[in-house]
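Course assignment 3, question 2. Fill in each field.
Student: A.L.
Task: Predict the tertiary structure for the chain below.
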Amino acid sequence: MDEGRPDPRERRRRLARALAWSAGHWGDRLLLEAVLRAPETLPVLLAEDDLEP
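Answer field:
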């Protein structure tokens, strides 16, 4: 692996943080990271997010 580039998990985390920050939805960064990891889980993740207060 190239020492200069972060691993895929770290790149996903950074992308999720950047997207959440730029959209003004910092609290959704973990949801975004999960969707980037496994896009097919989006419906379940959104349903779970709706249950939180």
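Instructor remarks: The helical segments are 8-23, 29-37, 42-51. Residues 35 and 43 are 10 Å apart (CA to CA).
Grade: pending
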